[in-house]
């Protein structure tokens, strides 16, 4: 169902509306001036002439007040419109040639009044135009004098109503687009927040949480050996202190969103992995010809290595572990192997306590760089974790 004209919000500041209003105002004054000139040229000076000149000036002055009163159907605007129409009706009765000033008045009435009142005004104005045309014909019968004014009024009203409804639909569409854009922006902000939370959770798990876990294990071991083997206990405490120092550096870099602490020294990924392997008593080797890696790739591979070695330390009960960084033609591969207890990857679920958050976080890191992470393991026979990152530029994939 088409919305009534009165329900369509009018925007006086719309450029098209201002342009149409200026055209109608200019047309009114042209028609009013032409009607006065026509009357003075075709009639000798008579008793009604001063009244017609005075009413013409009054009507022009009244019409100039219209833009000051706005376009809304306020009481003073309606009173102004009634006064303008009344003066025009008197002019038409005295001089029928002023009848065609009705067309701009159609527009003014349709902009100001509710639909039914506006249509009633158009009907009244049209009737006076017909009356004026009949008067100008001096009693001669011409069907066009009866049909033409209503036809012009109908066309003018239909065009105006159609334009207003089109404008209302466009405004509604613009409002829908703005609302959709706001909702999209809110969704993007929520997604960005969730992505940042996931990133921070992975960073904390792979660094701070693993470091705190190591400190706890070392301090527990120091407590057990404090009386029987003080030297070993003090060594455990010193190791826990060094881990706490690295965790502090990592925490500070989280605040500034910088690279992992092990990469901050400028030695690159190989040196960082070598230092990590030394701290975790693992073997490290490099295969292939080294090539420069983007910072994000270096950071991701280091985090994956940290998470994998933490899992080995906490869950695998392994006697040895090895890190291997391999440079291939189109990708770089990090392998982390251990000879520990192993597990069944097919039965592994992220919510399980064993290797709970580590593997999903490692997989997400690899996928975000267009890579893959695979795990090969058998209960009692150790585990091999392999992360492959393409060297060619790729579109960043989602988790």
TrEMBL record:
Domain Histidine kinase: 301-393
InterPro entries cross-referenced by the UniProt entry: HATPase_C_sf, HATPase_dom, His_kinase_dom, Sensor_HK_TwoCompSys, Sig_transdc_His_kin-like_C, Sig_transdc_His_kin_sub3_dim/P, Sig_transdc_His_kinase_ChrS
Chain residue ranges for the region called Disordered: 377-399
Record bears the keyword Oxidoreductase: no
EC numbers: 2.7.13.3
Pfam families per UniProt: HATPase_c, HisKA_3
Summary of the function given for this chain in its UniProt record: Member of the two-component regulatory system NreB/NreC involved in the control of dissimilatory nitrate/nitrite reduction in response to oxygen. NreB functions as a direct oxygen sensor histidine kinase which is autophosphorylated, in the absence of oxygen, probably at the conserved histidine residue, and transfers its phosphate group probably to a conserved aspartate residue of NreC. NreB/NreC activates the expression of the nitrate (narGHJI) and nitrite (nir) reductase operons, as well as the putative nitrate transporter gene narT.
Subcellular location: Cytoplasm
Keywords on record: 4Fe-4S, Cytoplasm, Iron, Iron-sulfur, Kinase, Membrane, Metal-binding, Transferase, Transmembrane, Transmembrane helix, Two-component regulatory system
Catalytic activity line of the entry: ATP + protein L-histidine = ADP + protein N-phospho-L-histidine
Stated name of the protein: Oxygen sensor histidine kinase NreB
Main localization category: cytoplasm
Protein species of origin: Streptomyces gulbargensis
